[in-house]
Amino acid sequence: MTTTEDGLRRDVAEAVLRLPAAAALGFAFEELADGRAVTRLGWRPEHSHAPGAFQANPIAALADFTGVSAGVTLLPAGATAATADYTVKFLSEARGEALVARGRVVRPGTTLTVAAVDVFAVSGGREELCATALVTMRNTRPRAA
């Protein structure tokens, strides 16, 4: 359950990436520990409504998974969380070769945790903020053996 030298909670990353939706979309973690998460999603035609532009749903899904993942890093081993609510505000067209989402826990809690996530479109090494989100997750305690 510990964070590795590269700053990645592997147990949380593996659990999230086993989820069918995360696997289908192709999310990857760059950072995941201590109430923070950084995720990446490379552009593919399936994520798009126009060449080189991301459609709203993959952006929102990335924000959701990033926020919940950041929150899970603060829970005890064996605990899980599920999205209770999230709101995404789209600020500009998301055009580029990838999206990078940066999430951080705003308020940890025993029942509910709230995280904030900023999503950036990456093009030619430059990042442009394209969306921001608030994600509320319901925490589930580990089951007794």
Q: How would you sum up this structure, described in words?
A:
This protein is an alpha+beta fold. The protein has a single domain (10-140), classed as Roll (Thiol Ester Dehydrase, Chain A), CATH 3.10.129. The protein contains three helices and eight strands; from the N terminus they run ααββββαββββ. It has helices at 10-17, 20-25, 56-72, and strands at residues 28-33, 36-42, 48-50, 53-54, 80-90, 98-107, 112-123, 126-140. The strands form two sheets. The protein has a six-stranded antiparallel β-sheet with strand order 1-2-6-7-8-5, with helices on one face. A two-stranded antiparallel ribbon has the order 3-4. Strand 3 (48-50) and strand 4 (53-54) form a beta hairpin. The chain is globular and about 50 Å long. The protein starts with 9 loop residues before the first helix and ends in a 5-residue tail after the last strand. Keywords: Hydrolase. GO terms for molecular function: acyl-CoA hydrolase activity. InterPro entries: HotDog_dom_sf (IPR029069), PAAI_dom (IPR003736), Thioestr_dom (IPR006683). Pfam families: 4HBT (PF03061).
